[in-house]
Structures are given as C-alpha cells and as structure tokens.
Amino acid sequence: MAAVQVAQLRGVLTVNGASSQHNSKTADLARSVSTRTVPALSFSNSRGWGCSVNASPLLLSRQDSRQNWCARPVQTAELRSDVPDAEESFHVQQHDVEAGDCAMQWKSYTGDSARVENPMLERLNMREMNEGDMWREECGVVGIFGDPEASRLCYLALHALQHRGQEGAGIVTSDNGTLHTVTGMGLVSEVFDQSKLAKLPGSATIGHVRYATAGASVLKNVQPFVAGYRFGSVAVAHNGNLVNYSKLRAELEDTGSIFNTSSDTEVVLHLIAISKKRPFLARIVDACEQLEGAYSLVFLTEDKLVAVRDPFGFRPLVMGRRSNGAYVFASETCALDLIEATYKREVQPGEMVVIDKHDGETSLCLLPHKQRKACIFEHIYFALPNSIIFGRSVYQSRYEYGQILAEEAPVECDVVIAVPDSGVVAALGYAAKANVRFQQGLIRSHYVGRTFIEPSQKIRDFGVKLKLAPVSHVLKGKRVVVVDDSIVRGTTSTKIVRLIKEAGATEVHMRIASPPITGSCYYGVDTPSTEELISSRMGVEEIRKVIDADSLAFLPLERLRGIVPDEAHTFCDACFSGDYPVPPRDLVKDKEELQKPVMALVEGYEGKFESAAIFKKSWTPPDLEPAGVTH
Q: Which residue range or ranges hold the Glutamine amidotransferase type-2 domain (predicted)?
C-alpha cells in the first residue's frame, strides 16, 4: 500500500512528503490534456503549475452533488493552470491507495458548502455587471494546412474572429510528427507574442477563441485540446454545443473514462480514443455518429487536417485557399480576408473535409443528409457585417432587417441612432427607408476591460455608461428612434432608454432588428435560461413599459423568414419560435458539471505552462503503468 497524504497548512501543500508553496485561495485549477503522453514543457514564471518527470500529480475533483471528492494520479506532465481569486480552501484526510490505482475516495470535504456550489460566483456576478444584457457566441475556429507561417496566419485569423470569444485562445501546430500547443486566458493579443509563436513551428495548425458558459471560464477549458491515444496524437477545436453531452459523459465515465475539463468537446476525444474503427478518419465518423447538437470541428494530427460540420449545419464553417495553395478553414469569411485567402465554399452540413500531403483535398459524406438548420442569429448579431455566412452577406441581411422595421413600425422622428456595434447596419437600413437622418447618438468605448473600479459614491447605470456615451448635440430636443439587434433580459435596454432621455431626447422609440426571444439556444450560444428572457414572460406593451420607451417594435418573425422565402426552412429560429430541430436534453444553461476538476497537486516545479510537444512514444510515472503500454 502506498500512502498518499495531502494537507494544506499556511499555504504550503504537501504531496508524498514534498512541499511546494501555493496560494491558499487557489481553486478550480489545472487540467491534464493527455493521460498517456509526456509533453516537452517550457515554463516562464512561477504563477502556475508545472510537472517534473518524476512527479506524480494528483487531481482532486468533485465526484457528485453530495460534496464527495476523489483524487487520482495524473499520468502526464502536461498541466495547465488558471488561478482565479476564489476564496476556497481544502482540508482532506489521509488515505491509502493501491499502487497503480487511478482513483480514491475522500471521506469528507470541509468548507463552506454554499461556496462549493459555485466557487466562481463572485467572478460571474462581476462578468454580468460588465457585460450587460447580451447573447454571446461561444467560439471561433481556424484551421490552416500547407503554409510555412501557419501559426502566425492562425494568430491573425483568430484576431479576426475575436468577436466570437474573448475569454481564451489557443493554437496547436504540427511539425515533423510532433504537436506543439500554446493556450491562455484573455484576448488573442494577450495570449500570443513573438516568443510564443516561435514555439509553434510547422505548416499545419488549428486555433480557437472561446467565450465560456457560466462558471467554466478557466484555462483547463481553453481549446484546442490535445490528447494522445494508442495510434498517435490528435488536437481538436470545436464551435457549437452537444445536447447529449451529459448522457455521453455519464456513459464514458461508467466505462472508466476520466474527464479533466467541463467542456463538451472532451467527449469527442474520448469517443475517438475508444472507437474500434480503423483508420483514424473512421474513428471520427464513429464518434460523430454518436453526437447530437451543433458542432463545427477542426482536427489536427501529425499529418492531417480534418474539418467536420454537423448534419444540420447549425454553426458556420467555411473553406478558402491562399495563393501558395494553402488550405484555410474558419468560422467566418472575415478571417479569410485578413490573411488573404480566397473564399471557396462552405463545409456542407454532414461533410468531412480531409487535407493531407499525399492526397490533397478529400471530401466525405460524414452522416446521412438532414434538412439544414443554420443559426439565423449569426446574421442578426454574432457575425461581423463583412462576413459571408451561409452563403449570404451579413451586411445585406441586417440592412434589410432595418428596412422591414421602418415598414412595419413607422413613427414620426427627427433622428435614427443605433446601439453600437451590432445595431448600426440595421439602423442605416431603417433610416434609409424612413428617409430620416442617421447619426451617431451613442459612442461606444472600445477600451473597457473585463473589470473596473467603481467609486464609493454609486453611479447609476455605471456599467452601461462605461461602454456607451450619449451625444447630447444629436439627442437634445429630438424624437429619437433607437435600433438594437435584440432584447434579452431587458436590463440594458432600460438603461439605454434612460441614458438617452437624460441626454435631452423628448421621445425614445425602440426598434429591435429581431423577433422577441422567447427560448434559450442549446446549439452553441451562451444564453440565459428561458425564465430570464423578458419576452418569454411579457408581451410587447408590457416590455415597453418596463424599459420606459415611448414605443417599442420587434422584427416580425414571418417577415424575417420572408427575406429568403425559398430558404426559410433551412434556418434555425428556435429561440423565436420554440421549434428545436434537435430536442435539447441538457436544459440547465449554467451547466457546471458535477465532476469538476478543482485542484491539482504536483510535487516539483511550479510554473506557467507555455508550450508542449506531444510525442508518439508513451510514458507514465513509475507505479502508474497502465496495462498494454510499452516503452
């Protein structure tokens, strides 16, 4: 029996008798990407966790809702960390574990159980204050094959997709049979610099920008994910959401799979690893046949780049070529434009496109054909106006939404303004149709960070005022039409109306360039629960009274569908109509999984993970050797 003791005394963690300094406030920390491979690590400072070759790290994770905890040896040196300032400490008891065992149960957890339910509640509340009343796309993906500057081009393409996710970013490259990865929290420009990009050699790459669902904004969830399995290594980046994730995860855990993240993307890697199909492409097909929901995926192996889109085509994925013949995949065409790649086509729903050195481009029908259900909100809000999404100009769509609003809900006014940025194009369309001047009545600040310091003397609507500044010269004494893309909870609209009236407007008429949102999205968008959506509880007139506007009108659903009458049935508008193409199973929007990694304990070096190279040759620490692994 090998005794394993974990204790925390005055910020010193003890593992197997060895101590390392650690901040006692650290919680929800670390993950291991691969369970059977050893990456080559590079460290730059002492604010994260590293691992030496002889280390045997332990991962504490919540086993179930009854506050039981388990610890297991992590069979890899690759640990990534994020250190949120969450007030949390852990006191666990000594237990014995058989050498080679993968898990053990702690008898009890002592701490504030209220805080255990969501140790990041404070951070989430702050995020709500900062970001207000909006929907957010969770992810953007990029894949490049055949360019000697792949990592730098990927960096630029991710920058073009920054609007799709600001919580974290990552890049993986393939070079001479080795995968190299860098991930980090923050904006693309904050995560990567010249030194980081220099550690990403190779002519093939995939990248990812992420916006997390509530409670999951930690480094362990930043993609791309890299894993080793029996036949090599694979990296994956995912845009979308799997509605049967909880079911698949439970089934995998029942058969022995251990999860290191709270991201549904990890399910895909497990399904590939356990598949009995050959070759690798057949494993992807086998895995995707078990997935339900939305997924636009890019995979990278030692010699291939694979792009996959779900049979319904919920989330966009486009393909382009550079002048040197390099292939480029991205969530939006704006990413192609920045790196001078020519748009060729969409990856079709249910299609798998494979790029390798030997066969070039190969297209395979992944799954049986279904009726396309592309997300209409890509055109309303998510995508940039200069992108082509689902074969149609986003700018053109939003301009027409504004024109329809002017036809359906005209009102006597002196000026038309927009809530920047997503309401601008629709406001231009409204102004043109109504023959009224469009002016900038609200100026958006592009320099508001994720947090701010509010003065002790409270300022009303402080968060909105930080972002939007009214132009009194445009608004004073005017009857104003304000065009916005949507109303979600109604809180931001209330503040905007008040802001404009305080600037001197005599009347404020809200025009919304989408139908009332009455249902949550389960296909890859960070949305509130249905109960939080104001339009699910109130009619238009009730909402008007709540936000204190002089009039309020939404884009009629039938007119939205009428813009592309022959293709209306190919778009998903479930958030407006309640008609979900794939019935959602995971109905809880704040889906912080029960088995959530919370702490990693490592004997040895303490540092910040920068990059890793995954080697084909497997390795595990002594006494943790899984059956069937040879050196």
A: 139-358
